[in-house]
Amino acid sequence: MIATRDSDWTKMFNRRAAILGGAQAVMVATLVGRMYYLQVLQAERYRTLADENRINIQLLPPPRGRILDRFGQPLAANKQQFQVMVIPEQAPKIGQTLEILSQLIDVPDHERERILKEVRRKRSFVPVTIKQNLTWEEMARIQVNAPDLPGIVVDEGLTRYYPLAGGASHLLGYVAAVDEADLTGDPLLQLPGFKIGKLGVEKIYDMQLRGKGGTSEVEVNAVGRAIRELERHEGEPGADVTLTIDERLQRYAAERLEDESASVNVMDIYTGEMLVMVSNPSYDPHVFARGATPAEWKALQTDSHAPMINKSIAGRYPPGSTFKCVVALAALEHGVAGPEATVNCPGFTTFGGRRWYCWAFNQPTRAHGNINMVQAIAQSCDCYFYEMARRLGVDRVALVAKKLGLGDITGVGLPNEQKGLMPTEAWKKAATGEPWQPGENLNIGIGQGQVTVTPIQLAQLAARFANGGLAVKPTLIKKAAGAEAPQLESLGFSPQNMAVVHEGMFEVINGARGTARTFAKLKFTDPERKGWTMSGKSGSVQTHRITKAERDAGVKKQEELPWEERDHALFIAYAPTEQPRYAMSVVVEHGAHGSDTASPIARDIMMKVLEYDPSRKPRVEEDVVAAAPAMTGGGAIAPTSTAPAPAAPVKPAGGDGHE
Amino acid sequence: MSDGFYNARLRRGDMAPTEKLFQLSWSLLFWVCCIFAFGFAMLYSAGGGSLQPWAGPQLVKFIVGVGVVLVVAMVDIRILLQYAYVFYGLVLILLVVVDVKGIIGMGAQRWIDLGVITLQPSELMKPALIMALARYFQGVGIEDIGRPINLLVPVIMTLVPVALIIKEPDLGTALLVLMSAAGVLFMAGVRMWKFALVIAVGLGAIPVIWPFLHDYQQNRVLTFLNPERDPLGDGYHILQSKIALGSGGLFGKGFMDGTQSRLNFLPEKQTDFIFTMLAEELGMVGALGLLALYVIVLIYGYSIAFRCRHQFGRLVAMGLTTGFFLFFFINIAMVMGLLPVVGVTLPFISYGGTSLLTLMLCVGILMNVHVHRDIQISMRGGIDF
Predict the structure, then answer these.
(1) Does A8 lie at the interface with B, CB-CB under 8 angstroms?
(2) Lowest pLDDT segment from A42-56, A171-185, B226-240, B299-313
(3) Are residues A43 and B247, on separate chains, in Cβ contact within 8 Å?
(4) Do the chains contact at B311 and A42, CB–CB below 8 Å?
């Protein structure tokens, strides 16, 4: 019992307790209301947010497909490597982290700028590559210091590997990091360190080689560490691309060129398959795969030998004397001269009030005298072809030249292929507004003046002569085994006329007075190939006009001139003459005389080609260089072809396979 | 055995220990055990399905706590009354010691290491202050309370420890202590307008106090006002907490299957944010269940206060009940984004020894009031045997 005097207090207490209780009831109701709002009304939204929190969708980069040679040897493959990356969201002070890292491994300043730029561009959980191709030592140093390097991870990945290094880099191109301009919406391109083809085959067949990315849904915790994989969709590995190139010959040709600024192209005259495509000097494609430094870039861009340019398809040269084959055929086809008709060469021709010299003028004999077509080709008489060109006029030469593939791209399938130029009277009028001068015909006659060709056009030209006038085109991609050989159209030249040019080209190398008799003869001794010969045509092109004063003072020897002023040396050839199968072109920039510089290169490579005979013979096992074990490639989807090349149409006996 | 017999016996205050045991509110203890069972399960889940590091040690502390409840409940309430000031004084000294140590240690100091147990005096201050205030108001009539001079002492008694706790700094506990004390004053009969005045002055003082708050305290308030202000910094906790709660939905993701807590998106899941984890894993159903248990304990507190026949017991019971209410309300409101993150744990659930033992002490005192509800206490608090 509480005393009565306390009853007022008790009333007050009860009243206030009721107030307090009521207030608390309201507050509890608020909690319940809030709970209902969050857990029932907004549940769906928060469920989504929770999933976004915990699920990271990661792209799985597909292994890039390999590029193989005609026998399945890798020209480009993938090699295991270690790279260090930074995950921005885990590196709160990224600048500081990079600072510490650069004390452990070399991170140049420009790289640091690139990294910070990428970090800004990409989402914070996307790792950014800092450096690739780490050595074991570098990797160990990073691992040991891992606690001081928040957000830094070392990742194992694949890097592009080119067994021939620079030996095929113009042809294959290279892969490099994705530029902003390359972003097409393919999420793969956002992946750190993802490489795409930037040039050559790597670029053209990029989509095929690239494959399709897979995805992996990974549950991650608050600091982004993957806890477990929830779901995985495998992508498709990139498909292999098989080229027509023979790795052995490509390697040999690249080595044979040594330091020359040159291009060599070898093709099958019936299938058009390119066996060799070398442009020298070259660059190391691995430099781009890891990322070229500005200094390396500058060196490549400013080199006078233009290592970045694929001379085979993008180098334009006057064809010089190699063009005489074209002029000879044009003369025969248009009936302006018979094979036996002679032209007198006194060492020069007078036309348009000035003298047009023959190269013989500078030789001890001073002149060729009376000379017929076969002799003119063999001895490369300028006077003879001045006369032929004068009789023909440029347009009739151009008709034949264009049939032989000059003045247009061959369509071999590489980017930046140049057309070269086969001028006509109409072309000049349109291009310059000036009428064609009769004197220009004479220049055209010896492959100088406005006419320019690319080395691959020259190889195609040689092939079209060699196969007796069939419209063969060069190709780089090997057709699947069993595919039918393409039916080649005839260009419509007379077999008799072709035979005359063939004879001339045979004499160039094998004749007593042929211009290339010294260096270009094949020297087989084995019973199978003994007696095989090569036919061809040399050429040298002035890159520097000889002035009157210089001629009067006595023309300098090429060796005395500075490199830039020396003539370009050219050579086209096909072999074996008896049953031709392979055609080639060799262009050596500033290599002086074609017969001296280009022809021995042509001979050596052609001998190697005939030895392997890749169009007809499978690769012998002993020759197969075991592929490096670490190299892996794409899937097995690609049509690998180690089978022998499709049987080529055998040239009919009689020597002139005109169909 | 009639009621009268017991009432008379109880009034005399000389019950034998066995009789007291009989008088204990075992059902209250049962509900407390139910709440703890929730907490134990959650700590087990937070530990990744293991008794370590939290659930096992907490169980040991709880068993000790049950002993504390039984002992405290059976002490004669007049002894509690007699030593209320002494207890308060001791805790106050400990608070000063902690602050001094904190100054020396150049950092936040909230506990004293007694070797066997680390003690957080600020926690102990809750029951100490409530009892001291109730002691002060024992026998004070409404008329006396009306005189402002009589309020000076209790206000000082309240503000000194609150100031010390803020200095630690432990804003959450300071608030709890302050508001529990306010509850006692309110129940003692202090005029409403005086509370209104204090609240008005307090609000007015915010701009003055603001610069003295620690950066992290300022940030917490700012973040509360706008959680998206800094989603990866201070807003992160509350945002992740809301995501966890919301994604739990009505029935939850299942015991031990909370992704937000399991994957550590949820901070402090074993202490301040344990309610979030519970709501994520057991859903709104589980959260309501826990809330219902709290309300049951609350109702026990009220009914004990009503049934008590002396002012001291009533004020103590109401003070403890109010404090308990604020305790869980602030925590739950905080994790649901209704209040700023102030660092208040969830009673009986969160991991932490001092907090649990203090709570058990409070339960003991509450039960003590229940046991001694009919004891006669003289007007001025003397012992009237």
Answers:
(1) yes
(2) B226-240
(3) yes
(4) no
- Residue appearing with tokens 């009769």: A438
- For the segment A379-393, the average pLDDT, to the nearest whole number, is 94
Q: What CATH class is the domain A247-618?
A: alpha beta
Name the pLDDT band for A260 (thresholds 50, 70, 90): confident
pLDDT, tens digit, for every residue of A328-371?
999 999 999 999 999 999 999 999 888 999 988 888 888 999 99
d(CA A37, CA A40): 6
Residues 181-200 of chain B whose Cβ lies under 8 A from any Cβ of chain A: 183, 186-187, 189
Task: Provide ipTM, 2 decimals.
Answer: 0.89
* Residue B321 pLDDT greater than 80, yes or no: yes
B325 touches chain A (CB under 8 A): yes
Q: Does A181 touch chain B (CB under 8 A)?
A: no
Read off the tokens for A236.
């498709």
DSSP state of A74: E
Lowest model confidence (mean pLDDT) among A187-191, A393-397, A518-522? A187-191
Going by C-alpha positions, the residue among A471, A584, A581 that lies closest to residue A538 is A584
Which backbone phi and psi does A543 adopt, to 5 degrees?
Answer: -105, 0
102-121 of B, contacting A, C-beta below 8 A:
none
A7 contact B CB<8A: no
Q: Which two tokens stand for residue B250?
A: 């009505």
Q: How far is Cα B28 from Cα B31, in angstroms, rounded to an integer?
A: 5
pLDDT tens per residue, range B344-384: 889 999 998 888 999 999 999 999 999 988 887 765 544 44
Q: Give how far Cα A327 sits from Cα of A380, A479, A610, Å.
A: 12, 35, 29
Specify whether the CB–CB gap between B277 and B258 falls below 8 A: yes
Helices B234-248 and A43-54: angle between axes, nearest 10 degrees: 120
Q: Which residue has the higher pLDDT, A545 or A139?
A: A139
B200-231 b/e with 16+ CB inside 10 Å = b? eeeeeeeeeeeeebeeebebbbebbeebeeee
Residue ranges covered by each domain of chain A: 80-161, 247-618
C-alpha closest to that of A403 among A491, A332, A467: A491
